Amino acid sequence: MIKTVFNVADKSLATTPKHVTINFDKVKELGEKMIKDGAPKYFKVKPKYNIKIYTEVLKELVACSINYCYWYGSHDIRPNECSSTLMYECVENVFDGIEVNTLNFTNRISNLINLLSIKRFPLIEERKKHLYELCEDRKAELFVGYVTSKKYSGEELLINMVKMFQGYASDIFLKRASLFFIQLNRKYGWFEDDLMHILPVPADYQVPKILKHFGCIEYKPALEEKIYENQLIQKGSIEEIQIRAATINACKELKRQTGWNIANVDRYLWTKRKMTDEPFHCTITSDY
Question: Residue 284: left (phi > 0), alpha (psi -120 to 50), or beta?
């Protein structure tokens, strides 16, 4: 399944016209800078009680299912300053202080949908669909049981995730699915020996922006003009697909050069995103 992501990326970049290209000389330069700077440091959490781990993983599953698109068109037009930070606050609000045996998961998901609606998050219908998908036949609780049991490999868990929750499977680059496992790696150090070395980078808005800033990916003038004018890049268009494909392949090469896992590559680039005021491309999508 993971190989298909890289296959799609390769095929996308081989098509014409080529709206986006990778500058491998600049990728090499950035890789050398990353090695010099050092990999990001994480505080690995080791909760005393398994019930705490279970709840945290469940919240991450919920959050990643709706962690997308916080604006309508231009990124600086946001009702209530909607953001991933606010989304996580909403999730914490409805799941705060719970224990598994008093979870009442479906009711809490309904409360979360109400809260997201009041906050006027974009694409609320899509978010509602993805959240209620978690409630079907208690699949979310079942899946989190799989994750916390430590009986399954990372790849087996990824396959189970997209089988159980089609919302996670819909993106051809598996952005939100990859992010779920990367988030757990950052918290607990899980999947160090498998998924963190084979997953694609979660390709969205900010990572390609900073890669472009470093010169690692280059846009053709027509595409660059659209981005600077805040014109929407159509979801599924060859322009949008090539932006994400180049991001994935450039990060794959950075991972090879540095010897880092993909969580570290992603985190390094994410933390550098404010080095530039250049705009990023805007696409209305539930994929990122």
Answer: beta
Tell me the backbone φ, ψ of residue 21, rounded to 5 degrees.
-130, 160
- Residue 282 bridge partners (DSSP): 232
pLDDT digits (tens, 9 = 90+) for 76-113: 889 998 999 999 999 999 988 666 556 789 999 999 99
Same structural domain, 144 and 211: no
Q: Are 105 and 183 in the same domain? A: yes
pLDDT at 43 over 80: no
Rounded-to-integer distance, Cα 162 and Cα 169, Å: 5
Rounded-to-integer distance, Cα 175 and Cα 71, Å: 18
> Which residue range is the domain that position 77 belongs to?
50-197
The reply to whether 284 falls in a domain is no
Residues 127 and 205 in one domain: no
Is residue 146 within 8 A of residue 160, CB to CB? The reply is yes
Measure CA 224 to chain center. Answer: 23
pTM recorded for the entire structure: 0.93
* Cβ–Cβ < 8 Å for 237, 19: no
> Coil, strand, or helix at residue 282?
strand
Q: Provide the β-strand partners of residue 21.
A: 218
Closest listed residue to residue 180, CA positions, set 30, 65, 35:
65
Q: CA–CA separation, 142 vs 144, rounded Å?
A: 6
The pLDDT of residue 41: 86
Name the average pLDDT for the chain: 93
- Tell me whether residue 288 is in a domain: no
How far is the C-alpha of 194 from the C-alpha of 153, rounded, in Å? 8
Total domains in the fold of the chain: 2
pLDDT digits (tens, 9 = 90+) for 218-235: 999 999 999 999 899 999
